[in-house]
Amino acid sequence: MSGDCENGRPKRVLVVGAGAAGMACADTLAQHPDRFHVTVVEAQSNCGGQMFSIPIDQKEFGASWLNQGVQGGSHIYHHTFYIFEKLNHHPRPVDLQVSFGKGNTFWTNVYPTQLVARHSKEIERFSWVIKVMRWLELIFAMIPIKVSLKMFFFSDEFINSMIYPSLALFLGTGNATPNLPTVMMERLYTSPTYGMWYPIDRKMLTSNLPPMVVFPEATAVYTDWQHSLEKKGVSIRLHTQVKEVISRSKKDGVRVSIIRKLESNSSFPSEEGAKQPYPLKEELLEETYDEIVFCVLADTAKKLLGNQARWIEKKVLGETKWSDDVTVTHNDLDYMKRWYELEYNKEVAVSDLGGRDESGRVEKAKQLFQPMYLIKQTPADQRKLEMSFDCSAFQYQLPKDVPLEKHIFQTIFLNKKHEETWSKHEIQPDKIVGGISFPTTCPNTASLR
Ligand SMILES: Cc1cc2nc3c(=O)[nH]c(=O)nc-3n(C[C@H](O)[C@H](O)[C@H](O)COP(=O)(O)OP(=O)(O)OC[C@H]3O[C@@H](n4cnc5c(N)ncnc54)[C@H](O)[C@@H]3O)c2cc1C
């Protein structure tokens, strides 16, 4: 942010959006109250944006809350963990188990399966190809994954069943994975810091259990964060939405129009007799700030800037490609068993991989296999994936020693444009937890999930 004070007074900074980005921005600026006076406006009634938790039935599931959508991350999220610790909320480590595909296309990082054995030659070849990609990183930075894999003659089954699922999950890029630059794939296998699948296993592709970190209760974190920022003098205005940027100049600052929803204490009886709050009234305001920071989705920022956007802003903010995903939280075990491998499968387990004895790994899997992240290839198109999480296996507050019937799952149906490949309708409505199925708009180039 240019300059410190405006005419001897702290700069008035407007932060738009109280998700992770907006709160982190406000937190940093609030460390300098002599230089910045910070206002955060948030359209919703709470801070946290896409990261929030929902209440669940303690008696049924053994815990009173569930992190919805955002669940955890990798050890490289230093700033996130710094914030959690500062607020006295503690994430927990977990060794990640995955389960990709079903039946004869099933494989996992926990024990070798027939699919892995079938592709042993390609896995060996992939392990040196990835080294070549590392040496020629600058060139492969410009080549999409789908092109580079074909350049080295990998088979469709190897690409679709093994490579894409293992990337889609960690990059959070869903069905846009084939179009990513090759360098992103290469890093996942070769980087000791960023690489979830490092080191590559020349016989099994991935046999490590990537160390992940499970997030604490999102809503509690954001409520505490809000209060701690307010104590530092940050003004956080919920139910308040920037409508548009009216004007901006170096001399006069940024003038914005803002819609404030007014709290209503009164309620009216609904048709069913229950009391409903009156719809919130709206008030239109105009305010001026010295600086504005957009911590919203790129296309929202572009829309709010409107004709005040510079050409470079229009270009950068307009380049993000989006896909509409739908996440369903449920405990429909029949659905999960129909499409995913949730338990050790002796039919496809393999005890020898090209002369390497794998019986120890297989024996261990019989006791310990409990996948957390799962991927299904849709039957209509093997490249269209569906992702699921066994929240009970991953989130630490949920008991681990309960039968699968008591587990909570989250299934993400990717990209509404391909809705014809979805099997969302197969999830029993009475098994949907919290009675919701919520849409999430994901940038195709999102970071780790
Ligand atoms: C299903 C799903 C699962 C995910 N899982 C993970 C995970 O496990 N780990 C991980 O690290 N990341 C995960 N992510 C990604 C993560 O959620 C995002 O990267 C992060 O939450 C983005 O934060 P943000 O502050 O940039 O945006 P947001 O959280 O979207 O915050 C933007 C805020 O701006 C507000 N806003 C918008 N327009 C206006 C306006 N005009 N005026 C005022 N306020 C406005 C919105 O209401 C919102 O609160 C997941 C995402 C999804 C969708």
From TrEMBL:
SUPFAM superfamilies: FAD/NAD(P)-binding domain
A GO MF label: oxidoreductase activity
Family matches, as InterPro entries: FAD/NAD-bd_sf, Zeta_carotene_desat/Oxidored
Superkingdom of the organism of origin: Eukaryota
Name of the featured protein: FAD NAD-binding domain-containing protein
Organism for this UniProt entry: Lentinula edodes
